[in-house]
Design goal:
6-stranded mixed sheet; 6-stranded antiparallel sheet; 27 helices; flat
Length: about 900
């Protein structure tokens, strides 16, 4: 019996110990295991392991090489000490000292190799996978790939050696000095030398032994120093001066010369140092660094003299060639070298025929602004407190055969807005797992109450258009910041339906299966024991993590820059997120960095598509000519797909990203000047046009519009921005990025004649403020009880003419008031009008005849008709009272009710 109990206790103890060991391993490697599982579920396991494989590839050889060098070097020190001190202890303890040498060598090698593998892996991959640009720099005649891909790794090697070798030299001197002091007889010499410790320590014999030991090290140090000056010579291509970014006259004619002198001097100094060490000539050893320092001082003086006395008095003539290099290479780096410039003469005149010819442009004039629309969506279409529209995206769709620009936004689940008593674990992770559907409205249509005309709305999505949504659930989005466990016994909340809620179960294949071991794993990972204890979670349940689309794409490919504005797309009944991604660098020679980012090369080379239901993430190469994306494709085979593989329905929604366009338009303000003389004087510098919004003057945002570009046959989707002179408000040009079909990515700039004054947006804003009729009405509205919101002022070029459009919103000061479009302001040449609709404003601005209204037949009113007329009159009076009180929400409701009554009255008359 005792034996049985002992066996049982042993089994229990073994089980408990094993369990604790397993838990310890899981705790230590939880994040690693989760990452491996997740990357495996995404079919990107090769991407995940690439970093580790590369780190091992460079770390393991580095460890063995450094270990061998350290071991032989330290072992030599021990032998020298044994020989010098004649220490019987060292001779008898040879094995013990050998163990110490091996241990120290292992420690040093491990530290350095870990540093190398942790910091060099990316530069190493760039180095071995380098791709040519086909462009050579003008100074050294080297392909740009040298600067972008290979120099960073060479600098890594140089920086490590230039730090380690001096440390090793100093350490060697210290060790040999301690060897000297370890001999007891030396302390007697101290007293013999008057008690002067320095004089006692200064012993030429021991120092020469140390110098012989470091002779090779010293020579190697100066060789490495020569390598450093060779590499630093390329750095003149990033030089900064008042006149030019990149190598200037002084850099090329003086600084570069001294770098070459320093290369030669470093080799000479290395030879002198080694001769001095072996021949015990201290003056040679001291002369080695003195030569380098003297040349560096002479270099600094020479550069200062040449810059101030030769370049400065004739700066443009001396820097003209280098200014041209700076302009050319900056344009190439920001993809501005192929911008097509056209003259826009403003010789046209807008009339009815021109408006008819540009019907697609007119029909897509944006009289809604995305900022107020965001409020409206959240007020009218959130349906429940836990839903939220994070932002408004702008896109274009073929709606019933017409090319229309739209606002669109996903209705996401915002768990922060759940009632406090509802914020339990089941609701947060098992029940409220996804958002539902989108809202879409055309940019140019409003209802009778001034709200966006929604073509897709409500839950489930309702639409009268050809755009249907069959898979409206949003499991992955911009607000999905928590993990979700799907396919549990707890039904997932799908959408509200009256007083009840519809439930559903996830049918996708995404996520990690919740096996028993995975339940343990994710209990440790999340720190919540409820995952392990919950009876709602079965083996068919799946864990969805990294559901925020930004976190998701950055985790897979952290080496890209991702656009801050993902946008939702409806295609074939499903919802997808599209995210623009950028390759970038700060190593492009002669290219001036963008503002304070340090970036001087950028390409929108990747389009990322994330399925809102399954979370499937695909990376498509959109710029096949970008050498950086070519290198990443070699480094991570299988990660990137060709843009040709993207489904056609999604491809139709690719857009030129605003982030990229804004960088390019900012750089182009100065770098449109290709003539070095003009660039040097900054005589034609531009600025982004300004406008007024919420009472503040701010630069205009670039605008997506559908319009027919001058000289083109059909309307297309473009992104545009107007320019003004740097110190004035009149408009001098406007830039457009095309994005439909084969024209995707083409940039075109339309320049106005310098002899003609074209009103800029800010000048139109001032004209609006100065118009007595408009300012009077706006002052009345912008009083207590309501406020005015001025939308984006659009500048629309139409057949060598310019039309300006600005929507006016009115918002009540009441809580939860909805901003409503109440007026549209149009400006053309010196004329400004403000009307309730765009069509009325166009009719008034261009003296067009309003459509004739059909005559109303005379009918005898019945009792029912009289009641309807009285009801309509009462509602009208209520609406007017609401207007006087500034209650525009109530005003809008009365107008909606009035429309319904008038419709009933119309039907009654027809009968």
């Amino acid at each position: 019996m005792v034996i049985i109990l002992r066996k049982r206790n042993m089994i229990i103890s073994t089980f408990l110990i094993s369990l604790f060991i397993i838990i310890g391993i899981l705790v230590s490697f939880t994040n690693l295991i989760v990452d491996i599982q997740w990357f495996g579920s995404m079919n990107y396991l090769g991407v995940f392991f690439k970093k580790f494989i590369t780190q091992l590839t460079i770390g393991v050889p580095a460890f063995f090489i450094i270990f061998l060098l350290s071991y032989f070097y330290l072992n030599r020190m021990v032998k020298d000490y044994a020989k010098f001190a004649q220490d019987i202890v060292i001779k008898n303890g040879h094995k013990r000292f050998r163990s110490i040498v091996i241990s120290v060598s292992i420690f040093v090698s491990l530290v350095i190799s870990l540093f190398i593998s942790a910091n060099w892996w990316n530069d190493f991959l760039f180095y071995i996978n380098s791709a040519n640009f086909g462009i050579k720099d003008p100074i050294f005649n080297k392909d740009i790939s040298l600067y972008m891909f290979r120099l960073p790794f060479l600098f890594d090697v140089y920086n490590l050696l230039i730090v380690i070798i001096p440390i090793l030299i100093v350490a060697t001197i210290i060790v040999y000095g301690l060897m000297y002091l370890s001999d007891k007889t030396r302390f007697y010499e101290i007293s013999d030398r008057g008690g002067n410790l320095f004089r006692a320590i200064y012993n030429k014999d021991i120092l020469m032994i140390a110098f012989r030991q470091i002779a090779v090290l010293g020579f190697v140090f100066f060789v490495v120093l020569a390598l450093g000056y060779y590499l630093k010579a390329y750095g003149i291509l990033y030089s900064r001066s008042d006149a030019v970014f990149g190598a200037g006259y002084t850099d090329v004619h003086v600084r570069l010369l001294f770098y070459r002198i320093l290369i030669l001097a470093s080799f000479i100094s290395g030879i002198l140092f080694m001769i001095g060490a072996f021949r015990q000539k201290l003056k040679y050893i001291i002369a080695s660094p003195v030569i380098i320092i003297a040349i560096m001082i002479l270099s600094t003086i020479s550069q200062t003299v040449v810059q101030n006395f030769i370049v400065a008095p004739n700066e443009f003539e001396k820097e003209k060639t280098y200014l041209k290099y700076n302009i050319d290479f900056t344009q190439k780096a920001f993809d501005l070298n192929n911008v097509e410039e056209k003259n826009y003469n403003l010789s046209g005149k807008i009339d009815k025929n021109i408006l008819d010819e540009n019907k697609d442009t007119i029909n897509n004039i944006r009289i809604n602004d995305y900022r107020p629309v965001s409020q409206i969506y959240n007020q009218l279409q959130s349906i429940r407190l836990y839903y939220k529209f994070n932002d408004i995206d702008i896109d274009r769709y073929m709606i019933d055969g017409n090319y229309r620009q739209v606002f669109i936004s996903a209705r996401e689940m915002n768990l922060d807005n759940l009632a406090s008593q509802a914020k339990n674990w089941i609701n947060m992770h098992l029940k409220y797992t996804h958002g539902y559907g989108v809202v879409m409205s055309t940019v140019n249509d409003v209802t009778a109450t001034g709200q966006p005309d929604m073509v897709i709305k409500n839950i489930p999505p309702v639409t009268n258009t050809n755009i249907k949504i069959t898979r409206p659930e949003v499991y992955f989005g911009e607000l999905t910041n928590t993990y979700a466990i799907v396919n549990t016994k707890t039904g997932e909340f799908d959408y509200p339906a009256g007083d009840t809620n519809k439930e559903n179960f996830y049918s996708g294949k995404s996520g990690i299966p919740m096996t028993f071991l995975n339940k343990i794993l994710y209990t440790v990972y999340t720190g919540n024991i409820k995952i392990l204890l919950s009876t709602d979670i079965t083996s068919k349940s799946r864990m969805l993590i990294f559901r925020n689309i930004k976190d998701r794409v950055e985790k897979i490919a952290p080496f890209l820059i991702y656009d801050e504005d993902p946008y939702i797309v409806v295609d074939n009944g499903k919802l997808y997120w599209m995210i623009d991604a950028y390759t970038y660098s700060g190593n492009y020679p002669y290219s001036e960095p963008y503002e304070d980012t340090g970036i001087n090369y950028i390409r929108n080379s990747v389009k990322v598509v994330v399925d809102a239901y399954t979370g499937d993430t695909n990376y498509y190469i959109s710029d096949k000519n970008d050498p950086i994306i070519k290198v990443y494709s070699r480094i991570f085979p299988g990660l990137f797909k060709s843009i040709d593989d993207m489904p056609e329905g999604l491809k139709a929604h690719i857009r030129y990203p605003q982030y990229m366009f804004d960088i390019q338009t900012s750089v182009y303000r100065n770098y449109h000047m290709s003539d070095p003389q003009v660039f040097y004087n900054k005589e034609d510098s531009w600025d982004i046009a300004k406008e007024k919004f919420t009472g503040k003057v701010e630069p205009e945002e670039s605008q997506y519009v559908i319009m027919r570009l001058p000289g083109e046959k059909a309307a297309e989707y473009i992104l545009m921005i107007p320019y003004t002179p740097a110190t004035k408000d009149n408009m001098v040009a406007w830039m457009a990025a095309r994005m439909d079909g084969d024209n995707y990515g083409k940039l075109v700039v339309y320049k106005f004649p310098k002899s003609t004054v074209v009103y800029g947006p800010m000048q139109i804003e001032n004209m609006i403020d100065q118009d007595p009729n408009i300012s009077k009405e706006m002052s009345l509205w912008d009083q207590k009880g309501s406020s005015i919101i001025r939308g984006n002022l659009l500048t629309l070029p139409i057949d060598d003419s310019m039309l300006y459009v600005e929507p006016i919103y009115i918002q009540s000061s009441n809580e939860n008031a909805i901003p409503e479009v109440k007026r549209v302001i149009l400006a053309y040449k010196d004329k400004i009008v403000m009307e309730d609709t765009l069509s009325n404003a166009l009719n008034k601005l261009f003296n067009l005849e309003a459509p004739a209204q059909p005559a109303v037949p005379q009918t005898q009113t019945s009792q029912t008709q009289q009641e309807l007329i009285k009801k309509a009159n009462d509602i009208y009076n209520n609406a007017m009272n609401a207007s006087k009180n500034g209650d525009w929400t109530d005003f809008g409701k009365n107008l909606d009710e009035l429309g319904s009554v008038l419709n009933d009255l119309n039907n009654s008359i027809k009968k």
